[in-house]
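Late entry, written up from scratch paper. The run itself happened at the end of the previous shift, but nothing got recorded in the book at the time, so transcribing now.
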Amino acid sequence: MHVRGVAAALLLVGVIAGFESRGQAPAAQNPQNAPQQNTPAQTAPEMSSHDAPATFSTKVNLVMVPVVVRDAKGKAIGTLQKQDFQLFDKGKPQVISKFSVEKAGEAVIPAEVATDEAALDKSVAPGASSSSGAAPIAQRFVLYLFDDVHTSTGDLMQARDAADRHLTETLDPATRAAIFTTSGQGNVDFTDDRAKLHEALLKLMSRPSIGPRGSYCPDLSYYMADLIQNKNDPTALQAAAQEVLATCDPPPPGPPTAASEQTAESASRATASHILELGERDTRLAFTVIENAIRRLAAAPGDRGLIFVSSGFFLTDDLRHEETDIMDRAIRANVRISSLNARGLYVLIPGGDASTPTPVAIPNVLNLKAQYDRESALVEEGIMAELADATGGRYFHNNNDLKAGFGQVAATPEFVYVLGFSPQNLKLDGAYHALKVTLKMSRGLDLQARRGYYAPKHLADPEEDAKREIEEALFSRDELQDIPLELHMQFFKSSDVAAKITVLARVNVKNLRFRKADGRNNDNLTILSGVFDRNGNYITAMQKTVQMRLLDATLEKVLNSGITVRTNFEVAPGSYVIRLVVRDSEGQTMAARNGVVEIP
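Output as recorded:
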């Protein structure tokens, strides 16, 4: 319907607003009703519109478990049903209360194109635009996060070159890419400008904060420091103390005394404490950056992927809760995390490579440290695999073809199953819950799923949950059609630097579930209009709540004409994407539309 065709619906709102201004409902004008004393419910306005926080039903203790099932050739399959899966929490079977299948490349809502108000005045055909055609809407957002804190220079350069070739060959008009680093240096927000992305990649360099191995004596890894300081491992402590006695602070000739051994152990613990402090700081930094990357992706209206490029890093037990928080945040925001191990085909050289100082040839110490280095390399990979498994992503490792690796981790799984369950009698103790997902009939299929979660230590804030849910609807491209909804847009360019976009949401209320009370038909509509630039960057939004307390006669009119709400945005000339979301409070149904505005 052309924007001028909504005049009747707007007129209806205006008539009702007129009743509001007089403080009475239409039925109150009947002379037969005049002598009666009306109750507050009967004299309340039938319809009002105002800004208000959205209220949505919240999901208490709902644990979301993304699952990808692949056949023997590595191809994701999407023909399974809820009854094909079994889910266990700490070994106990759970009831799968929520089940959905996300399919890559599903058609999104066709974008409406705005009309030029000046063109309408010149009798241009309805719906025509003065622009030569709308640019493709960004549908996919991929954030490449390079861990320049934990990755060596050589590994980082190989990954950088592979990523550069990958982006040059694969970046398409509907995809936007961003480059982030754990150090925060040289970040580039979402863009389709290959030159900017290339320049950002060229500036990548390793920025370790702990310092190279050999900077401290004894020479301890983060993993070994954790064994000494947190796990009180006597073997690791003895190996470090022997290194102190042989290299750092050799005692007088002769067998070491009890005092010198005690001093060596104290020095080892002090060094371990310092390394542990630096390592935990860097891990928290990485987690903060990953969390910020997820938050940035959550504001991108489309398919969202995070590619974490790193050599991995060690995670102490104290930081496992933060890892689970990151997984939960990514799952809620529909962010898929994939990981690429920049080490490629990793081979551990006994005693370290040429860049690793060898303090002294103490066979038992060297053998122990080589063992710890192997164990550390394995657990450092763990965080990358866990993030990918938990969010439906892929983990590429033990392969030197990093360009092919970027192609794999950047590809959207064709199908992702999302299982949801509510743990019964869940204790708010922060305890770890191991998860296991199986298929009742394996059929030779490979299954990738979230490995576990930590119980919360306190109940979630319902207001925060409600706010998050309305934001998730706005920052999305998902098609929502529970409520018939029409989006109409106009723009008017007042000068070379200023313009106005008018967004009209016409809601068909025939399918709404009105609640009858005090002779009124009650429901609330929450209407969000958001503006994004061509790269998917959020600019602004307006939320309105329409409260309906309609008499039967008015409801009949509204059912035929619908309700139209107008929202205006002041912008500069340019390309914009409009996202419109509508939700009603009684039926808790939703609708969403996309629009494109090209202001020359």
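The first strand starts at residue 47 and ends at 50.
(Scratch paper discarded after transcription.)
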